[in-house]
Design a protein that fits this description.
The chain contains 2 helices and 3 strands, in the order E-H-E-H-E. With 83 residues, the protein is of the alpha+beta class. The protein has a single domain, classed as Mth169, Chain: A (2-Layer Sandwich). The longest helix has 16 residues.
Length: 83
């Protein structure tokens, strides 16, 4: 069994109003160290019955391309480990 972690985030150049709001809130709370834009993403954790890391990654890519990520405006990273 494989543990698959998919991190999905907006592509560079795509506006992130939620990230802007969090950046503004952090600044208002005195966390001025946050200089760059804040980007908000999502993380999806799956357990797959795949025999190998390669199979798990191929399956996760299919899932991302079909449903999990909007590939027009989002990128994704996939991390695989044994359960």
């Amino acid at each position: 069994m494989k543990r698959v972690v998919v991190n999905i985030y907006l592509k560079e150049g795509v506006l992130d109003p939620q990230g802007k709001a969090v950046h503004h809130a952090l600044d208002s709370l005195g966390f001025g160290e946050v200089v760059e834009d804040v980007r908000i993403g999502k993380q999806i954790v799956l357990k797959l019955n795949s025999a190998s890391d390669k199979e798990a990654k191929e399956e996760a890519i299919k899932m991302c391309e079909s449903l999990l990520a909007n590939t027009v405006i989002e990128n994704y990273d996939i991390e695989i480990s044994d359960v």
